[in-house]
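Incident log, support desk, overnight shift.

02:14 A customer reports that sequence design results differ from what the structure should imply. Their input is reproduced verbatim below. On-call engineer (initials T.W.) acknowledged and began investigating.
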């Protein structure tokens, strides 16, 4: 028995584990890869926080709410921006080294931010530095199990009591825990082109849904607009900080087009930029546009990770335009959690990308993702220490009726056979890319759901090994995403319906899945999101 079982080893999971161990809790961390193998290590841009004047938490809050397109929870955002600066300083105390100029933090500006507030490390290697610092801070008091794939949450009398996990050698075990924290990251592997590592297969989200937890906002998959157009996978990310330093998007004729799309031009929120690029790609039958970063003279020193990636394919950003196209990047929705990270299942907590905390709404503000994990992971630990037993109607859970708070576990499936899941996974990714990507409509989403139903049957019996289990999770999450996207007959944030191009006040709320039940719509009041 452990006091806290942490599933995942990115910024959210390790922040929680370290905080809990220092507060005297026994902690076990399970990760299906190595300790430092997470989406966190791929993050380039940095961490957004109002650390010094003239920036303020009010400005950061306003930028976050604007990017979220009416679906952010104000209380959650207020917590994020007000507690964020201290959490960033704590991260520095743990040993994370951020870039400085003349002894002062070097702050970058990214899309959707009204001024420079993003701290970064190694120019464009922020995630790797944070993961290094957190992994180094993991003490001997924390039991870390690498190579353990969590297959299901276990419960007793309606309370989560741990999880079942399988080791690479085939052995399996139920890890019993007083509290279990989901910090398993996102689901970028739903799509053919993604910036996410191969481990980002929606495992925690799928397990929580099967256990009966409420999940919401999964139609809002954020596509990073400027992934390097190259066969390598995950796609090398061309950080928004490039545009913050003066880089400009150009079409196939060399025209800088973003000034016609948004007042912030190339520093518009990600959903705006991704749509602008995607529409040109579709209308002009192109597979990429261009990012002109030739204005950045000190490119090798300022962005060493991107420099190496471009050099590897024979490009010099100081003189060559860089080919770019959108790539699946971040899931703004997830497992519904209150302002302390408590889910609708007692004993189960969630933070980081796997959670729907209310801070991102319909479109995450750049560099708020790492901050999300830093802020809400310790809040979950502190709530556990206070003896909190169940979720409260705060944050995204505000307005949820009893029908959305009960545990409605999905019936277990019969497992038989041993099919090869790889072709099915590729087919799923192709389907989601073609039918549920940046631009969607009723026909494409119906086609996606029909194909996913076929793939669900094809995936039967594949969950005897990790690849098969990942496939089952991908199918489950893909189906929830496409069904919510079909139900949301409007365009908002990262969800663009070509057949419903306008934003509708009728859809100012969350589409919530619970078990096998129908989608429920929870409207949001103006004071919650304004």
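02:41 Re-run completed on a clean worker. Output:
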């Amino acid at each position: 028995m452990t006091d806290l079982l942490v599933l995942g080893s990115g910024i959210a999971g390790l922040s929680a584990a370290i905080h809990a161990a220092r507060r005297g809790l026994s902690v076990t961390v399970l990760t299906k890869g190595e300790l430092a193998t997470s989406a966190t290590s791929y993050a380039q841009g940095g961490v957004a926080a109002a650390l010094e004047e003239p920036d303020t938490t009010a400005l950061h809050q306003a930028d976050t709410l604007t990017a979220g397109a009416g679906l952010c929870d104000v209380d959650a955002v207020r917590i994020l921006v007000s507690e964020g600066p201290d959490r960033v300083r704590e991260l520095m105390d743990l040993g994370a080294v951020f870039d400085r100029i003349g002894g002062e933090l070097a702050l970058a500006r990214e899309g959707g931010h009204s001024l420079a507030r993003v701290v970064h490390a190694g120019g464009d290697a922020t995630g790797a530095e944070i993961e290094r610092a957190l992994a180094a801070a993991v003490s001997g008091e924390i039991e870390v199990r690498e190579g353990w794939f969590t297959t299901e949450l276990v419960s007793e009398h309606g309370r989560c009591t741990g999880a079942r996990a399988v080791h690479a050698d085939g052995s399996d075990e139920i890890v019993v825990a007083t509290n279990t924290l989901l910090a398993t990251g996102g689901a970028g592997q739903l799509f053919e082109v993604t910036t996410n590592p191969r481990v980002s297969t929606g495992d925690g989200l799928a397990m929580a849904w099967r256990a009966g937890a409420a999940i919401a906002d999964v139609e809002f998959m954020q596509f990073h607009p400027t992934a390097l157009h190259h066969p390598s996978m995950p796609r090398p990310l061309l950080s928004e900080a490039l545009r913050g330093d003066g880089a400009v998007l150009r079409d196939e004729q060399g025209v800088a087009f973003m000034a016609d799309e948004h007042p912030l031009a190339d520093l518009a929120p990600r959903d705006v930029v991704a749509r602008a690029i995607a529409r040109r790609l579709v209308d002009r039958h192109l597979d990429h546009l261009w990012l002109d970063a030739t204005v950045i003279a000190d490119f090798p020193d300022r962005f060493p990770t991107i420099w190496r990636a471009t050099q590897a394919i024979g490009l010099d950003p100081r003189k060559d335009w860089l080919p770019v196209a959108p790539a699946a990047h971040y899931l703004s929705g997830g497992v519904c959690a209150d302002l302390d990270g408590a889910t609708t299942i007692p004993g189960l907590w969630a933070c980081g990308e796997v959670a729907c905390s209310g801070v991102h709404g319909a479109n995450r503000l750049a560099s708020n993702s790492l901050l999300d994990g830093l802020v809400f992971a310790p809040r979950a630990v502190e709530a556990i220490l206070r003896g909190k037993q169940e979720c409260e109607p705060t944050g995204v859970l505000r307005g949820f009726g009893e029908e959305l708070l009960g545990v409605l576990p999905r019936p277990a499936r019969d497992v038989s056979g041993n099919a090869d899941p790889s072709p099915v996974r590729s087919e799923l990714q192709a389907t989601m890319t073609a039918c549920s990507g940046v631009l969607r409509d009723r026909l494409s989403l119906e086609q996606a759901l029909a194909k996913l139903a076929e793939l669900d049957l094809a995936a039967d019996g594949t969950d005897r090994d990790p690849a098969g289990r990942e496939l089952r999770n991908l199918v489950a999450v893909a189906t929830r995403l496409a069904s919510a996207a079909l139900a949301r007959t409007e365009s908002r944030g990262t969800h663009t319906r070509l057949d419903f191009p306008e934003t509708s006040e009728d859809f100012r709320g969350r589409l919530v899945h619970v078990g096998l039940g129908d989608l429920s719509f929870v409207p949001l009041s103006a004071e919650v999101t304004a």
